[in-house]
Automatic annotation (TrEMBL):
Family to which the UniProt record says this protein belongs: Belongs to the DprA/Smf family.
Source organism of this protein record: Pallidibacillus pasinlerensis
UniProt domain Smf/DprA SLOG: residue ranges: 81-290
Lineage: Bacteria, Bacillati, Bacillota, Bacilli, Bacillales
InterPro entries linked: DprA (IPR003488), DrpA_SLOG (IPR057666)
Source organism superkingdom: Bacteria
SUPFAM superfamilies the record matches: MCP/YpsA-like
Pfam families found in the cross-reference section: DNA_processg_A
Protein name per the record: DNA-protecting protein DprA
Length: 298
C-alpha cells in the first residue's frame, strides 16, 4: 500500500511548480515514501531541497492544493498511462542509464517498451541517399521484429517511423514536449497513429510546450530504451550525435551509415566511424554486433 502511495506522491510532486527532477531525486533520497515532504514547512522545504525564493510560495501551494487522484483520472480520460521509476514495469534498460526519467507518460501500447528495440536517428534534412538508407535499414529491422525508436523530428526520424508503420512494424516516438503540444505540428497526424497503434512517450506532462533544452534530454531516453543507436546522416554538430554520445556513455552499440566526404550531412556519421562506431552497409553488420540474448535485455 505504501509503495502505491509513493507513486501517487511522486507524480504529484513531479507536476508541482518549482520542483525539477534533481529536487525530486533529493526528496526520494531524504524519504523514499515521500510522505514526510507533505508535512514540511516552507522553511524546511527550502532548507533541505534548496527551493528558491522565487518558487517556494507556488511550490508549497501546489503541494497542498493539487489533487493527485484528479490528475490520474484526468490522464485516464486522455488515454495516458503513467509509469514511474518506482514501478516494477519501468523499462529495465532505461533504468540503467545515468539520470533515468522519473516519470514516463505513455500513450499507446506500453508492451512495446519491453521489445528488442533499436534507435534510428539522423538529420532533419536528409539527402536522397539518406532517405533510401533509412527505408532499407528500417524495412530490414522490421522483418527481424525489432521495434524502432526515434524522436518524431522531421527528416530521418519521421521516415523511420513512417517506414516502420508502412511495413507493419512497431515504433516508439519519444517527444521533447507534452502530448498536447506535438512538435513539429505537421507531425500530429502520424503522432495520432503512433499513439493509437504504437507508443508515444514523454517525460514531460501533457501541457508542456516544446523547449530547446528538452530535446537533448529527450535523446537520452531514445538511446536508453534501446540496445543500439543507428545514425543515418548527421552534420558535425547534430542532435543525433548527442544521442550517439548518450549510447556510448551507457555502453550501448552505436552504428553509422558512411557517406560522401563532400556531403555536410555525412560529416557527423563519418566522424562517428572514425571514433569507433560500427560502419554499416546492411542489417547483417548490425546483427553481428548485438548480443545473442538481446531479447532478454529489455
Amino acid at each position: 500500500m505504501e509503495s502505491s502511495l509513493a507513486k501517487y506522491r511522486l507524480v504529484h510532486l513531479y507536476e508541482c511548480r518549482g520542483i525539477g527532477s534533481r529536487t525530486l531525486y533529493k526528496m526520494l533520497k531524504f524519504d523514499p515514501t515521500l510522505h514526510d515532504i507533505f508535512l514540511m514547512t516552507k522553511h524546511e522545504l527550502q532548507y533541505y531541497f534548496q527551493i528558491s525564493n522565487r518558487y517556494i510560495d507556488v511550490t508549497y501551494f501546489d503541494i497542498h492544493n493539487n489533487d493527485p487522484a484528479n490528475t490520474y483520472e484526468k490522464y485516464a480520460k486522455m488515454n495516458i498511462q503513467i509509469i514511474t521509476i518506482l514501478d516494477e514495469i519501468y523499462p529495465y534498460l532505461l533504468k540503467q542509464i545515468y539520470n533515468p526519467p522519473l516519470i514516463l507518460y505513455c500513450k499507446g501500447d506500453i508492451e512495446l517498451l519491453y521489445n528488442a528495440s533499436l534507435a534510428v536517428v539522423g538529420t532533419r534534412n536528409p539527402s536522397n541517399y539518406g532517405v533510401q538508407a533509412t527505408k532499407e535499414i528500417v524495412r530490414s529491422l522490421v522483418k527481424k521484429k525489432f521495434t524502432i525508436v526515434s524522436g518524431l523530428a522531421k527528416g530521418i526520424d519521421f521516415i523511420a517511423h513512417q517506414t516502420c508503420i508502412e511495413h507493419t512494424g512497431q515504433t516508439i516516438a519519444v517527444l521533447g514536449s507534452g502530448f498536447s503540444h506535438i512538435y513539429p505540428r505537421n507531425h500530429e497526424q502520424i503522432a495520432n497513429i503512433i499513439g493509437k497503434s504504437h507508443l508515444l512517450l514523454s517525460e514531460y506532462p501533457p501541457n508542456t510546450k516544446p523547449q530547446k533544452t528538452n530535446f537533448p534530454e529527450r535523446n537520452r531516453i531514445i538511446s536508453g530504451l534501446t540496445v543500439g543507436t543507428i545514425v543515418i546522416e548527421a552534420r558535425e554538430k547534430s542532435g543525433s550525435l548527442i544521442t550517439a554520445d548518450f549510447a556510448l556513455n551507457e555502453g550501448r552499440e552505436v552504428f553509422a551509415v558512411p557517406g560522401s566526404i563532400f556531403s555536410d550531412t555525412s560529416k557527423g556519421t563519418n566522424f562517428l566511424i572514425q571514433q569507433g562506431a560500427k560502419l554499416i552497409q546492411s542489417i547483417d553488420d548490425i546483427l553481428s554486433e548485438l548480443p545473442k540474448n538481446t531479447t532478454q535485455m529489455v
